[in-house]
Amino acid sequence: MCNRSAIDMSKRLTREERIKTVLISGERSNRVIAADFNARHPTRPPISHATVSKLLAKFRETGSVLDLPKCGRMKTVTNEETSVAVLASFSKSPQRSTRRMSLESGISRTSLRRILATHKWHPYKLQLLQHLNEDDLGALGPPRSPDLTPLDFYLWGHLKAIVYGVKIRDVQHLKLWILEACAGISPAVLLSVCEEWEKRVALTIQHNGQHIEHIL
What residues contact residue 125 under an 8 Å CB cut-off, 6+ apart? Predict the structure, then answer.
């Protein structure tokens, strides 16, 4: 939960000073604690009893003297559990961009790139390669359509069904399971996929390069 309270004097205390304030509190009143702290630190701006009250309340509530994260601050964690979740998400949707993933997960794009780079994964990047004129629109066909791409119409779905059929323990387990799923694809299945691809190409030619999703 974000801390929306107004900035007070307690935020000017260092971590060590906050801990020291808690340690010297005992059963004394907040006014006495503030006076004691100010006497021990005559060269810094004095704190008030209200500052002590807020600090002790924070410690009782959270077990910490640190400030809560600011609103809107993205996560920068890159622990094992987060890495597994990120890699699993990109494995499930390979064309998802880091920008979209960041917006959906709250994990910063820097952390996402670090996780992907560490595990040698490459995020999808949309790039404009050439300019299209209005006259080109009628000639556009689906050469890179998922309907004509074996990775899309077969492999990704097959891998997801196998990989997500077990509970993934960590990143290494995820990688191993993906490799095993790929290795388990038989030559007969690969032949069937090739035949399906030829069938889809023929349908595309028959329909003058138009999309064929509605007739598959």
Answer: 97
Q: How many CB atoms lie within 10 A of CB 127?
A: 4
Residue 71 — pLDDT band, cuts 50, 70, 90?
low
To 5 degrees, how large is the angle CA 165–CA 171–CA 173? 50
82 token code pair: 């987060």
Which among 4, 5, 17 has a CA at the least distance from the CA of 45? 17
Contact 83, 16 (CB under 8 A): no
Instruction: Tell me the C-alpha distance between 184 and 164, whole Å.
Output: 15
Distance CA 134, CA 5 (A): 55
Question: What separation in angstroms does the CA of 93 have from each of 15, 72, 145?
Answer: 42, 26, 15
Q: Are 30 and 42 in contact (CB under 8 A)?
A: no
**Global confidence as pTM:** 0.36
Average pLDDT over residues 181-194: 87
How far is the C-alpha of 10 from the C-alpha of 3, rounded, in Å? 13
Which residues on neighbouring strands pair with residue 75, listed in sequence order?
A: 107
Q: Which band of pLDDT confidence, cut at 50, 70 and 90, is reported for residue 29?
A: confident
Locate the domains of the chain by residue range: 9-62, 80-118, 140-215
Residue in 70, 38, 71 with CA at minimum distance from that of residue 52? 38
Nearest to 67 by CA among 51, 89, 80: 51
3-state secondary structure of 145: coil
Q: What is the distance between the terminal CA atoms of the chain, rounded to a whole angstrom?
A: 49
